[in-house]
Amino acid sequence: MTTVIDTLVQTPISILLGL
């Protein structure tokens, strides 16, 4: 994570992959 945006983008993706 280099920026806060990276976190905001990867978090929902991780949740979707968790589904």
Automatic annotation (TrEMBL):
Domain of life: Eukaryota
Protein name per Swiss-Prot or TrEMBL: Uncharacterized protein
